[in-house]
Write a structure and sequence with these properties.
Transposase Inhibitor Protein From Tn5, Chain A, domain 1; globular; alpha+beta
C-alpha cells in the first residue's frame, strides 16, 4: 500500500506547525476565527501560487475538488469558501507570512551552494521592481494620476540567489529611503544602480565598513586624487582615486575609487564607483555585471508566480499574496538545492503545478521525475510473483 502523502503535503512539512502556531499566537492571527484557521488560509494562498490559481473561485474550487486529499494538508475546513478566504486576506495580519518567509530562508541558507566569487565578503544586490495596478480598484497604491502601482524592494544574496530582505511600498516609494533604513552586516558588499546614489548614504556605509559598488552619476562632480596602474589588453580604461564634492553643510566625502570599463556589447564606457580598494578592477567590474541576477529574480517572480494579478484589492491582501509568492520562491530554491536532476526554475514550477496532489515521495520525484515510482514497481512485482507462484 502506498503510504506516501501528496507532494503538496510534503512541501507543507517544511513549515513546522509549532513555529506556525507560535507566530499566529503572537500576532493574534486566529482571533475570533470560526472554522477557518490561519493554517487553512496559508495552505489556500500557497496553493494559489503553486497551482497558478487566478481567482478566489479557482482556489476554493481547486481545493474542494481534492476533498478526499485535504486531510493530508492539515486543513480544518474541508471547503474553503471564497468569501471566507477574501475576509481573511483583508483582515488577518500579513506579518505572519513575513515571519514564515524568514523561517524558511534560514533553512535555504543552510544548504545553499557556495558563492561564485572567491573573496570572503558577502555579496548582496539591492533593487526594486514595479507592479502596475488599476488606480480605481487599488486606490491606496499611489503612483500617478491615472495609474496605481506597488514597488517591491528586495535584497538578493548571491549565495544561492536568495532574497534575504523584502519591503513593499506604493509606486512612489523611494529606493533611497529603503536603503537608508537597511542595516547591512559589517564587511558585506552591496551592489546598487544609480537610483540609489546618495552621498551621505555612501559615507555612512564607508564608516560602517560596508562596501558598495554602483555606477557613477553622469553629473557627478569630483576631483581626481591619484591614478592606479591598469592591466594592458583589458577592458579597464581607468582606475582612479577620487574625492566627490559633498553637499553644503555636510562632512567631507571619503576617498572613493572610480573605474572606467569599456563595454564591448554596447560600444560605450561605464563608470563604476566603489569604496573597496583591495579587489582588482576587473573583479569589481564582474561584480557589478553580476547585479543582473536580481533582474532575473524579478523575472522569475513575475513570470512563474502570481504577482502581477491579485485575488484581493486591499493593501493587506496584496501584502499577503506578495509574501506568499516570496515563500514560493524559497520553496523552489530549496527543492533545487536538494535535487540532483538539474531543474530549470520554469520546468520545476510547471511540473510541480501538475503534480501537486500526486502521491509520491517528494525527494525521489525531484531526482527522477519521469521514472516509475520504485514503490509501485515493488507492488507490481509482488503482485506478479503471487499470481505466478505454484500452488
Amino acid at each position: 500500500m502506498n503510504r506516501t502523502s501528496s507532494l503538496f503535503s510534503q512541501i507543507l512539512a517544511l513549515f513546522q506547525r509549532s513555529n506556525f502556531a507560535r507566530h499566529a499566537r503572537d500576532l493574534k492571527a486566529d482571533f475570533r476565527a470560526k472554522g477557518f484557521s490561519s493554517w487553512d488560509q496559508f495552505v489556500a494562498m500557497l496553493f494559489c501560487q503553486l497551482a497558478q490559481a487566478r481567482s478566489l473561485r479557482e482556489i476554493s474550487d481547486g481545493l474542494r475538488s481534492c476533498e478526499g486529499k485535504l486531510k493530508h494538508l492539515g486543513l480544518i475546513s474541508n471547503q474553503p469558501r471564497r468569501s471566507t478566504l477574501s475576509y481573511a486576506n483583508a483582515h488577518r495580519p500579513w506579518q505572519l507570512y513575513q515571519r514564515l518567509f524568514y523561517d524558511l530562508l534560514a533553512q535555504c541558507q543552510a544548504i545553499s551552494p557556495k558563492k561564485k566569487f572567491r573573496f570572503k565578503n558577502r555579496l548582496l544586490t539591492l533593487d526594486s521592481t514595479l507592479v502596475e495596478l488599476c488606480a480605481s480598484m487599488y486606490d491606496w497604491a499611489h503612483w500617478s494620476r491615472t495609474k496605481g502601482a506597488i514597488k517591491i524592494h528586495c535584497l538578493l544574496d548571491h549565495d544561492g540567489h536568495l532574497p534575504v530582505f523584502a519591503h513593499v511600498t506604493d509606486g512612489k516609494g523611494s529606493d533611497r529611503v529603503v536603503a537608508r533604513a537597511l542595516h547591512l552586516p559589517k564587511g558585506s558588499m552591496v551592489v546598487v544602480d544609480r537610483g540609489y546614489s546618495d552621498y551621505q548614504l555612501f559615507a555612512r556605509w564607508t564608516q560602517q565598513k560596508v562596501f558598495f559598488v554602483t555606477r557613477l552619476r553622469r553629473n557627478a562632480v569630483y576631483r581626481r586624487v591619484a591614478s592606479r596602474p591598469v592591466p594592458k589588453g583589458s577592458h579597464i580604461l581607468w582606475d582612479d582615486l577620487i574625492q566627490l564634492d559633498s553637499p553644503r553643510g555636510c562632512a567631507p566625502m571619503p576617498l572613493l575609487r572610480r573605474i572606467v570599463v569599456w563595454r564591448e556589447d554596447r560600444q560605450e564606457e561605464m563608470e563604476i564607483l566603489t569604496n573597496h580598494f583591495g579587489l582588482a578592477a576587473s573583479t569589481l567590474a564582474a561584480i557589478f555585471k553580476d547585479r543582473w541576477q536580481i533582474e532575473l529574480f524579478f523575472k522569475l517572480l513575475k513570470r512563474n508566480l502570481k504577482i502581477k494579478t491579485f485575488v484581493g484589492t486591499s493593501a493587506n491582501a496584496v501584502q499577503i499574496q506578495i509574501w506568499t509568492a516570496l515563500i514560493a520562491v524559497l520553496i523552489v530554491r530549496y527543492l533545487q538545492f536538494r535535487s540532483r536532476f538539474g531543474w530549470a526554475v520554469s520546468n520545476l514550477v510547471a511540473l510541480l503545478r501538475l503534480n501537486l496532489f500526486t502521491y509520491r515521495d517528494l525527494w525521489e520525484w525531484l531526482d527522477r521525475p519521469f521514472d516509475t515510482p520504485s514503490q509501485l514497481v515493488a507492488q507490481l512485482e509482488f503482485h506478479l510473483d503471487s499470481i505466478c507462484a505454484p500452488e
